[in-house]
């Protein structure tokens, strides 16, 4: 009898384990499974949230976005579109009966607005724009009109012989957009009933980001109307009556950048963000939350003394306060600011990152949020409480055993304290020294946060301790911390990277004989600076970087940065020479280095990587160059995203896991 009971217990236990498959590490092919949520929109009655969900079709090797809808109580989740062409910009009609979106489905040459009855049925094409590219749109409060943002179209003639690209602009290149010509972007009014389109703005300047006043009589928008917009980063907020031939009025006059305009509930004020700097070129900066009368005048700077970037302002229902997202040390939290005096109340924080917020008709808020173990989902905020609304990432996370994530601070050689994040493999043995990779963020004005980081999780899954270093130049630590690297690239940042590396070694986390470094964009640039400064790294991967700085003047999109931060090369060539030391002293580099870049990258173009590859190849230092066809600075081809991860791991393994 005892043997029978023991047998039954073993069978039962075995069956239980069989039903619970073991978790596995992340692998490169998981890029095909990760979905991306964005652009949540709350219905006028508050019962539904529409959003886009982007998924990968691995067979077609493309990412496609569909429109989904989730009930506010979280009980229902409905996929509304299934087109292979993709949809974006879901927007509710003011009466809540319809959901609109943009798509080029059905073989259209450009995006049009489509209208879907929320009660069911197929979406119908609403607009039929013959010329120009539709960029944005916004419903009027009464639902009778739609404000359109349309860019004049480039030459689309079907001639077998393409026409020459004629350039006469100061800044003439932009990643993804390509060569910039004299296209203009203007506002138009579309009548829902008559389908008539009226011109609202015209001329040589661009107008974007339309926001209707609550009573529907006016539209606020952004425009840079300086004599030569290409030579500065200015934008101002303007207001125009919502009718043809109306005169626009300038509301803000800051010579820096004003943006993100939001009307107050009573329509008397506009909340917005403005840069701290009033200079022509704005790189090392952080945004300030402001409020101004709809008629203009002196603005009230609500967060002038906060010394942290503020974003996504949203008015409270009573108009007495404004909720916004604050970027702080490795986090982004939600705070409320009193309109009368700017007093801040922290609403919701923690080791996580809030990305967007929207106000519910009840006065509560909705947000998109991510943490170190969970990719972005949509959440409902009720005061200080948070409730998860969507659960799209559960299938992605179910089979995975993710890295553990913790923050730590390190001291640099010159005494600066730097904030970092450490990723350890899920199966790491306590006290064991690990091969380590310093994986450096781009920007430089950005920061690594306690959000879901696919790249660092992927490298940790391959058996590495991975470190994100928020070097000087990063945001989240105040303006002085950010600005200190201006025109002094590759100096203090390298000290910070080496300080974090020292911490890992001194605390027994990293094996000093198995150190690697890598990064993309400014992370790639800092990789080059670091391996030219220190030979301790056994392997490096530099993505979309540059070292011979003067060689990209006029080749990349940063003409304003060169002119305002370094000066013209023919006047200040000594600065360019000093900042080019990884290339000009490439014989110092002993680290085997992999270089990667997108073929069509106009942000940090391929010559930056090609030059460094050629230098190391000429010197006999182990190196390789991978160029991804048709890719911009940010990759969109899923198979190339997978390939990049595979090549990272293979290259690091070659030198750190012999």
From TrEMBL:
Pfam families: DPPIV_N, PD40, Peptidase_S9. Keywords: Acetylation, Hydrolase, Protease, Serine protease, Signal. Residues 1-18 form the signal peptide. InterPro entries: 6-blade_b-propeller_TolB-like, AB_hydrolase_fold, Pept_S9_AS, Peptidase_S9_cat, Peptidase_S9B_N, WD40. This enzyme catalyzes the hydrolysis of the N-terminal peptide bond of an N-acetylated peptide to generate an N-acetylated amino acid and a peptide with a free N-terminus. It preferentially cleaves off Ac-Ala, Ac-Met and Ac-Ser. Also, involved in the degradation of oxidized and glycated proteins. One of its GO terms (molecular function) is hydrolase activity. Residues 451-658 form the Peptidase S9 prolyl oligopeptidase catalytic domain. This is Acyl-peptide hydrolase.
């Amino acid at each position: 009898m005892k043997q029978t009971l023991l047998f039954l217990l073993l069978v039962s236990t075995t069956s239980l384990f069989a039903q619970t498959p073991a978790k596995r590490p992340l692998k490169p092919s998981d890029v095909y499974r990760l979905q991306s949520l964005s652009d949540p929109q709350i219905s006028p009655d508050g019962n539904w949230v529409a959003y886009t969900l982007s998924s990968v079709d691995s067979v077609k090797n493309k990412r496609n976005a569909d429109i989904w809808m989730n009930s506010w109580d979280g009980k229902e989740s409905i996929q509304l579109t299934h087109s292979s062409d993709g949809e974006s910009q879901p927007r509710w009609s003011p009466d809540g009966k319809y959901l609109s979106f943009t798509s080029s489905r059905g073989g259209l040459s450009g995006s049009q607005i489509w209208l879907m009855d929320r009660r069911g049925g197929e979406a119908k094409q609403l607009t039929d724009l013959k010329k120009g590219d539709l960029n944005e749109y916004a419903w009027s409060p009464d639902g009778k009109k739609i404000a359109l943002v349309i860019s004049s179209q480039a030459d689309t003639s079907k001639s077998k012989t393409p026409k020459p690209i004629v350039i006469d602009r100061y800044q003439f290149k932009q990643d993804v957009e390509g060569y910039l010509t004299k296209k203009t972007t203007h506002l138009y009014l579309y009548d829902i009933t008559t389908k008539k389109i009226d011109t609202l703005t015209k001329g040589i300047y661009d107008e974007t980001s339309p926001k209707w006043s609550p009573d529907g009589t006016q539209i606020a928008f952004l425009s840079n109307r300086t004599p030569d917009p290409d030579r500065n980063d200015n934008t101002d907020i303007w207001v125009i009556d919502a009718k043809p031939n109306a005169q626009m009025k300038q509301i803000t006059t800051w010579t820096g950048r004003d943006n993100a305009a939001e009307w107050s509930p009573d329509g008397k004020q506009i909340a917005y963000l403005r840069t701290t700097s009033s200079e022509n070129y704005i790189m090392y900066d952080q945004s300030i939350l402001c409020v101004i009368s709809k008629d203009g005048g002196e603005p009230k700077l609500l967060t002038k003394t906060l010394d942290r970037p503020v974003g996504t302002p949203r008015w409270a229902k009573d108009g007495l306060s404004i909720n916004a997202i604050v970027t702080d040390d490795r986090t982004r939290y939600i705070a409320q600011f009193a309109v009368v005096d700017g007093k801040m109340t922290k609403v919701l924080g923690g080791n996580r990152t809030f990305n967007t917020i929207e106000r519910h008709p009840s006065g509560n808020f909705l947000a998109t949020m991510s943490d170190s173990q969970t990719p972005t989902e949509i959440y409902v905020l009720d005061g200080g409480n948070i409730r998860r609304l969507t659960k799209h990432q559960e299938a992605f996370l179910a089979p995975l055993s993710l890295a553990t994530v913790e923050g730590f601070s390190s001291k640099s050689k010159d005494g600066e304290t730097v904030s970092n994040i450490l990723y350890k493999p899920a199966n790491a043995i306590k006290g064991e020294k690990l091969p380590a990779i310093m994986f450096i963020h781009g920007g430089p004005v950005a920061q690594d946060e306690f959000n879901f980081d696919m790249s660092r999780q992927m490298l940790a899954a391959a058996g590495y301790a991975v470190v994100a270093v928020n070097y000087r130049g990063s945001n989240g630590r105040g303006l002085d911390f950010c600005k200190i690297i201006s025109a002094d690239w590759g100096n203090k940042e390298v000290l910070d990277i080496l300080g974090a590396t020292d911490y890992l070694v001194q605390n027994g986390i990293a094996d000093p004989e198995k150190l690697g470094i890598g990064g993309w964009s400014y992370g790639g640039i800092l990789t080059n600076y670091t391996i030219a400064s220190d030979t301790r790294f056994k392997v490096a991967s530099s993505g979309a970087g540059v070292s011979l700085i003067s060689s990209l003047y006029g080749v990349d999109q940063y003409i304003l940065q060169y002119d305002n931060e370094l000066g013209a090369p023919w006047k200040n060539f000594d600065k360019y020479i000093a900042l080019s030391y990884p290339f000009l002293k490439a014989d110092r580099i002993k680290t085997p280095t992999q270089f990667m870049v997108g073929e069509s990258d106009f942000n940090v173009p391929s010559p930056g990587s090609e030059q460094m590859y050629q230098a190391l190849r000429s010197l006999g230092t182990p190196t390789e160059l991978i160029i991804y066809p048709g890719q911009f600075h940010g990759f969109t081809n899923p198979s190339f995203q997978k390939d990049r991860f595979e090549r990272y791991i293979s290259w690091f393994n070659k030198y750190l896991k012999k």
